[in-house]
Amino acid sequence: MTPGRLGTTVVTQQQEMSVKSVVVPFERDTANPPLGDLDVPERWHTVDRSAHAPHLVAVPGADGKGRTAAALVTARPGTAYWKIVDAVGDVPAAVRAVLDHARERGLAQVKWEGWTATPEAAAAAGFTPLRPPLAQSEGAAGPTAGYVRWLHDDDPVTGPAHHDGYSDPPYYGQSTHFTCGAVTALVALAHAGTLAREELDREAELTLWRGATNFPACEPVGLGVAVRRAWPSSPVTVHLDTDRPVLLDHYPENEREWRALLQRTSRTEAGRTGVPIAPDRLSLTAIQDAIGRREHVLLLVSLAAMQGFDVPHWVLCHGVVPGAVVIDDPWADAATGDTWVDAHLLPVSDRSLDTMSSLSTASTASAEPVEPVAEGFRGAVVIGRRS
């Protein structure tokens, strides 16, 4: 079963008529004269979306002049989707035009925020409703509804997201700036049926973080050990291709020393609790294979590409589509117009995911300068299926 067939009637490309349209950059501080008499929501101009390449997909009038429809479209860099923020004018024509251009670019998916989109309009265009979030990340007040349409309807798809009986993982936005690791683990466990969805709340988030933290971040070994302790029936494997302490390079030496000690303690605890630490780099193919076995991969990435700041961050890898891995990201950056609709069921291109999950440094706790590890390091926690 492919994502496009989940819970809705698939509208194939052959059933749709192409729409003549133009794509132009969106300038927040201009009145957008190319849109003529079309009225656009104020939200188009109140948020600086420049980091997410905002552009207009506009449908010209029959005489080639003016505009009968337009959609504001954005996307996180390095990803394989487009998001419709709003469509105005002849909405069905605007949406068809967006789908046409997304296919031309080989994208995996188009999403549609539910600010003004109705369920009926979304369904008529072949979109499936996204399950509303259990919580939204701190400061990110997105729409109450969102919709998705997958564009590889006839392609083979692997992973837990694409088997009969599948339901999407719940979306839960982290409530702090530092609990991403705990949230991705909890969402994975809820998706696997190990944790009841109603138990995925802030208390669970902070409790798991407290057991895994390296103050304040969660490093791979500590996170894996905390998951195994809390859910001993779930197989857990840590993948970390360095034996040096990680995620410490921005601290002064005296701050690195005690955190490094805690990481060494986590390795000792991994041995005691039966959590293997694989020293080889987890390849992109291995990530895809794990997903194909219906396992969940918690992957440590840098947000430099997707959000513009080089901060280590945990995401959940749970599905595969042609050319991309489907992740859930517990963080949305409201300052760029990013919402839970972007972060949920997010396809990241294979090349981008491979790059962003190669973190640049692993730090020692010595007084000597921090030196980059060759080709960076990769950290991941794989949660297997319960036997």
TrEMBL record:
InterPro entries: DUF3335. Pfam families: DUF3335 (PF11814). This is Peptidase C39 family protein.
